[in-house]
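Incident log, structure service

09:12 report received: a user says their structure output differs between two submissions of the same chain.
09:20 pulled the input from the user's history:
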Amino acid sequence: MSIKHGLLALLQDEPKYGYQLRGEFEAATGATWPLNIGQVYTTLTRLERDGLVQPSATRTATPEGDGRSMYEITDAGRTELANWFETPVTRESRPRDELAIKLALALAVPGVDVSAVVQRQRMSTMQSLQELTRLKRNSTDGEISWQLVIESMIFGAEAEIRWLDHCEAMLLRHRGKPRPAVPRTYDVPDQEAARSEEARSEEARS
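09:34 re-ran on a clean worker, output below:
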């Protein structure tokens, strides 16, 4: 989920101040994706530049009023939001998997204890899983919007632990095997050697 589309979704019903948007965004995601107010206004500036939001003439006396403009979604913004909801998230559009890249590089670099890297990561992921499970257990039935986010993170952590178990099993199977040899490079024969080879071939044919 991008911050851009998250803010557009929150503006769909009514104009809001930046502080309102930050609070509602964090409430919807269970504070699993904290924002600072600078991120909010930077994103709003880009959305305004692209014609997806605009400053609203509406003013309300709310504690969230921070002396800045309220923003409202434009027709172009509603179209952008509708397209986002209708378009599946593809694997290619997600961030690169830093953990997979780290383990691949650990295997490629001599002197790195890959098993230790896997063990430390498993311990960290287990701690995160325990914390996420605690948050889910303490949530209420009415907080379904961020329960979905929490459960997605729980499933992701569980999958990561299973993948780390798989990585460790692969390391055990391949332990002791030499690293693949670097492919040899062959010299190009010089012209004299090439002519000698041609001469021998010619004699053999005659």
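09:41 both user submissions now match this output. Likely a transient worker issue. Closing.
09:42 reviewer note: Residues 53 and 137 are 38 Å apart (CA to CA). Residues 179-196 have pLDDT under 50 and may be disordered.
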